[in-house]
UniProtKB/TrEMBL annotation:
InterPro entries: NAD(P)-bd_dom_sf, Sc_DH/Rdtase_CS, SDR_fam. One of its GO terms (cellular component) is cytoplasm. PROSITE patterns: ADH_SHORT (PS00061). The keyword Secreted does not apply. Keywords: Oxidoreductase. GO terms for molecular function: oxidoreductase activity, acting on the CH-OH group of donors, NAD or NADP as acceptor. It comes from Mythimna separata (Oriental armyworm). This is Alcohol dehydrogenase.
């Protein structure tokens, strides 16, 4: 059964959010959902200028002036990312939440560095900038960071090794940054969401041209579309509402989000006994 959209997410109401990769797919769904949940302002970053501008126009017409702001930004470029954060602070004077959603998926060896730079390095950089702004130990008011990982971070496999590695790195990094000691100092929750395959352009057949011809078929069969964007977004809202700092959640197969932290901790305990 498909998950239903969570309502009255109190940690969203009247807050200012920044979403990376927000022009389409899950990112655009998150932006829309935050505004429906009465976020004060939502800024979203993306390299897709046409899609981002169109979404901004749609949202301003729907929710009113100043509620949404599209910023064209290649988050793998640290200078552009820093400028985007500065633009948000200059415009809204505060920041309460960041959702690091942007990612690229490719089997083309020529794009390996870009995949690492966007999926992992930019997530680290964005998280650190958000902590510098929101951390009470840095003069901020606290807040929430949600970093989007993948079920591939939890499963051993041989396909998409670079993508899986970046998402595993995001998981490990986010758990460490959200640990109790760090949270007690910053009052910024850092939470990880591992998404199952979701019905976005990245998994559509016409996008498989990014993969070599010999692997396109097998990849499509191994990564079937399992859940709607709306279900992924609903799960992320649930995590915003209920997630503790350092926790890891799974959102897959159109099911409600569930906390996987205890099982993951048990698995790490086993691995540590080597």
């Amino acid at each position: 059964m498909a998950a239903t959209m969570v309502r009255r997410v109190l940690c969203v109401e009247d807050k200012v959010f920044l979403v990376t990769g927000g022009a389409a797919g899950v990112g655009a769904g998150i932006v829309r959902a935050l505004l429906r949940e009465n976020a004060r302002h939502v800024a979203f970053l993306d390299v897709a200028d046409r899609e981002g501008s169109a979404l901004e126009t749609e949202l301003l017409n729907m929710f009113g002036a100043l509620r949404a702001k599209f910023i064209k930004c290649d988050i793998s470029d640290e200078a552009q990312l820093a400028a985007a954060y500065k633009q948000v602070l200059d415009k809204y004077r505060r920041l309460d939440g960041v959702i690091n959603n942007a990612a690229v998926l490719s089997a083309d060896e020529r794009t390996v560095k870009k995949m690492v730079d966007i999926n992992f390095t930019a997530t680290v950089t964005s998280t650190m900038k958000a902590l510098d702004i929101m951390g009470v130990n840095k003069g901020g008011g606290g807040g929430t960071i949600v970093n989007i990982s993948s079920l591939l971070a939890l499963n051993l496999g041989t396909h998409l090794p670079v993508y899986a590695a970046t998402k595993t790195a995001v998981l490990q990094f986010s758990i460490a940054m959200g640990a109790e000691k760090a949270y007690s100092e910053s009052k910024v929750r850092v939470i990880t969401v591992c998404l199952g395959p979701t019905d976005t352009a990245i998994l559509h057949r016409n996008n498989l041209g990014n993969f070599d011809k010999d692997s396109a078929g097998p990849i499509e069969s191994r990564v079937p579309v399992r859940q709607r964007v709306e279900s992924a977004v609903s799960g992320i809202l649930t995590v915003l509402d209920k997630g503790k700092s350092g926790s890891t959640w799974i959102v897959k197969n159109d099911q409600e989000a569930y906390d996987y932290t205890n099982k993951l901790n048990q698995a790490f305990e086993v691995l540590a006994q080597t």
